[in-house]
Amino acid sequence: MISESEIKKIQKAIQSEDEGLPIIFGALGDARRFKMFNLLCEYKDLCVTDIAKIFGISVPAASQQLKILEMTGLIKGVRAGQSMCYGIKTNPTIKALLKAIENNKSVEKK
Fold first, then answer.
1. Does the pTM exceed 0.70?
2. Which backbone phi and psi does 73 adopt, to 5 degrees?
3. Which of 59, 90, 19 shows the shortest CA–CA distance to 99?
4. pLDDT tens across 38-80, in order?
């Protein structure tokens, strides 16, 4: 068993953890959104119409999924004329996720 002081230390650490991670994992918990995020990791910048064609879905359906990823802070949207294009938003949490995804890909290739 751990001591009472260790329990308090763990409780304090848990309270100070990033509250955004469960939201991010919730967004990536959907297989299609995860694939879209993974695609953006590889191709850096894609428009909604391109993503819709790649996944064989309507533009509004692709836009809705991308909007969820954008609301979590994983990606950022940039208007290009009448089109909306998306890319990965860089911050330390996302960089760690990208590294984990990249590590997973290299393990799968072996």
1. yes
2. 90, 10
3. 90
4. 899 888 889 999 999 999 999 999 999 999 999 988 899 999 8
CA distances to 25, 51, 70 from 59, rounded to whole Å, are 24, 8, 16
If you count DSSP H runs as helices and E runs as strands, how many of each does the chain have, helices first? 6, 3
Are the C-beta atoms of 46 and 77 separated by less than 8 Å? Answer: no
- Dihedral sign for Cα 19, 20, 23, 28, please: negative
Of 3.40.50.720, 3.40.630.20, 1.10.10.10, 3.40.50.10610, which CATH number belongs to 20-109?
Answer: 1.10.10.10
| Cα 83 to Cα 47: distance, rounded to the nearest angstrom | 7
Helix, strand, or coil (residue 53): helix
